Amino acid sequence: MIHPAALVSPTAELADDVEVGPFAIVEDGVVLGPGCRVLGHAQVLAGVVMGRENVVDRGAIIGGNPQSLAFDPAIVSGVRIGEGNIFREHVTVHRSTQPGGLTVLGNRNFLMAHCHVGHDSVLGDQNVIANAVLIAGHVTIGDRTFLGGSSVYHQFIRVGDQAMVQGNSSLSADLPPYCIGHEINLLAGLNSIGLRRSGLDSAARLELKRLYRGVFHHPLGPVKAAAALLPEITSETGRRFLEFMAAAGPKGLCTPGAG
Question: For domain 7-156, is the CATH number 2.160.10.10?
Answer without folding.
Answer: yes
